[in-house]
Specification:
By secondary structure, the protein is mostly beta strands. The protein is 0% helix and 54% strand. The protein has strands spanning 11-16, 22-29, 40-46, 52-60, 70-78, 85-92, 99-103, 110-117, 124-131, 143-148, 159-161, 167-174, 180-187, 193-200, 208-216, 221-228, 236-242, 248-254, 261-262, 273-276, 279-288, 291-300, 306-314, 317-319, 322-324, 328-334, 340-347, 355-362, 368-375, 382-389, 395-401, 404-412, 429-432, 439-444, 450-456, 462-466, 472-474, 481-489, 494-501. It has an eight-stranded antiparallel beta sheet, with no helix packed on it. A hairpin with a 5-residue loop joins strand 17 (236-242) and strand 18.
Length: 502
């Protein structure tokens, strides 16, 4: 049965920058998570009906004080196109864990998987919940598998479904006052344990966890990676490799003696390492010769030799006259065609006091197919936290804001026209809502002046030229369909965007 519905204050839609590439930004006010902090975006997945599901840890404050009265997970169901918030669902939990959400490989529905603790027994369980596309949970078919008689901690991105449709999980349990035991296990979707292994955390030293995934498809190998610091030396990337039965096989480090690559500030929640056949791809910050940004580096798995690299420079972020790191990886994934999808926070070169999120798609040889920048329309900085690749090659990304109880959903299409079009990095205006039923609103950056707006049909026929009142475009009398809007600025620059009339 569907649980408590949560209603929020407002939903602002910003379909801007390039309508062919940036479908929408949904900006949503929410409650606080915990008594002293903002909400935390926790996961994103595509549902079996094509919608995008964002998961947010949040505390709902009913009493007007600083403490959260109810804490749990909020589900935001967002349309694939237009970024429309279709539904929300709040699932209370006093200590919400990380949950994996995914399409169910065995049905036309979806599944939620997490490691939970029973407050009565104190034991920990693997919980598998099926739910439909209307966010109704099937409690009759819930699976609860005992894992431990004590507290079990499951890190973010600590569960995934492999190509055999098995659940691969990692979690930790206390094993003394100063140590933990790390567990690695493989379960079927029905909760059947196939194999597992455990090892003391002291034998896998790591100061901060970053990722868990497949290191090699054949033979099957897994990785557990993060950053490590010894005796206050600069942190380095450490990766532990396990065989198909989770027996320890090997380990390696990156950037321990190389000042160029800096995993110190890799605080994205998704993978920073990907299997690529005989190689692996590592995403990181870089800093060299007074420059900074993010990079992707290809390494040979056997020799750890660096084979290729691509760099995306940024600027230092300036907040209250203090220079802080200007770029940080968010996610690194592959689409169904083998292209790399990489997202990161960066500093905007157009407005020096505002940040932006960049998303890049590259082919297997690190050639950039396209790159999109999401400009921050407000004066505070976005923090991207979660990313997924959609079935049609698009990318969904979500996160929160610095010091504010708000979240955002960013959905990017994959229908770029040509590589040349990417030379225009940022549209200096926003337009919304898109799709629209009547008025399309336009909001321009302070340093630009619009000259005219032209509207064309898909056959290229000019339908309208507008030289006054350029803050809006009336589409109420047009038939439903897709049109091309061309905006010309006073300096002669022109931008073309797809707009949809419902």
């Amino acid at each position: 049965m569907k649980k408590n519905q949560v209603l929020f204050a407002f939903l602002l839609l910003f379909g801007h920058i390039s309508a062919q590439s940036l479908d929408s930004i949904a900006h949503h006010q929410c409650g606080y998570y915990g008594p002293n902090g903002g909400g935390q975006m926790d996961n994103v997945a595509q549902m079996s009906d094509g919608s995008v599901l964002f998961i947010h840890k949040v505390g709902i404050n009913f009493g007007g004080n600083t403490s959260a009265d109810v804490v749990g997970n909020v589900h935001y169901k967002v349309s694939r196109h237009g970024g429309v918030l279709l539904d929300t669902l709040f699932v209370p939990d006093s200590d919400p864990p990380f949950y994996l959400f995914d399409k169910s490989p065995n049905s036309d529905g979806n599944i939620r998987v997490g490691i939970v603790r029973d407050s009565t027994s104190g034991g920990s369980f693997l919980q598998i919940f099926p739910f439909d596309n209307d966010l109704n949970y099937d409690t009759l078919n819930e699976v609860m598998v005992p894992l431990s008689d004590t507290f079990a901690y499951n890190p973010s991105n600590g569960i995934f479904i492999d190509k055999q449709n098995d659940l691969i999980i990692t979690y930790s349990t206390p094993s003394g006052s100063d140590d933990y035991t790390r567990h690695f296990a493989c379960f079927g979707l029905d909760g059947t344990l196939k194999h597992e292994n455990s090892t003391p955390s002291s034998s896998l030293p790591m100061n901060s966890y970053l990722g868990f995934g497949v290191f090699n498809e054949s033979p099957q190998e897994y990785y557990w990676c993060g950053r490590n610091r010894v005796n206050n030396a600069p942190a380095h990337f450490v990766c532990y490799i396990f065989d198909s039965l989770f027996q320890y096989k090997d380990s390696f480090t990156i950037a321990e003696n190389n000042p160029q690559y800096q995993c110190e500030y890799n605080f994205g929640w998704k993978e920073c390492l990907l299997d690529d056949g005989d190689d692996f791809i590592f995403g990181s910050r870089f800093g060299q010769d007074g420059k900074n940004g993010v990079c992707l580096v290809r390494y040979d798995k056997q020799t750890l030799e660096e084979k290729d690299a691509v760099f995306f420079p940024s600027r230092p972020m300036i907040i209250d006259d203090i220079v802080v790191a200007g770029a940080c990886p968010i996610g690194l994934l592959k689409d169904s065609e083998g292209n790399f999808c990489f997202s990161y926070n960066t500093q905007n070169h157009m407005f020096t006091d505002k940040g932006q999120i960049a998303v890049v798609k590259l082919d297997g040889d690190f050639n950039v197919l396209w790159q999109r920048f999401c400009l921050e329309p407000q004066g505070f900085f976005r923090h991207g936290r979660v990313m997924t690749v959609l079935d049609d090659g698009g990318i969904a990304l979500g996160g929160g804001y610095s010091g504010l109880p708000e979240v955002f959903f960013l959905i990017i299409n994959d229908d770029y026209d040509s590589i040349e079009e990417q030379g225009i990095a940022i549209r200096p205006y926003a337009f919304y809502p898109n799709p629209t039923q009547d008025q399309l609103r336009l909001q321009y950056s302070p340093d630009v002046q619009p000259k005219q707006i032209e509207l064309y049909d898909l056959q290229g026929r000019l339908l309208r030229t507008q030289r006054k009142g350029l803050e809006s475009l009336d589409m109420s009398q047009l038939p439903a369909g897709t049109y091309t809007m061309r905006v010309t600025l006073e300096d002669g620059k022109m931008f073309s965007d797809k707009v949809v009339k419902e």
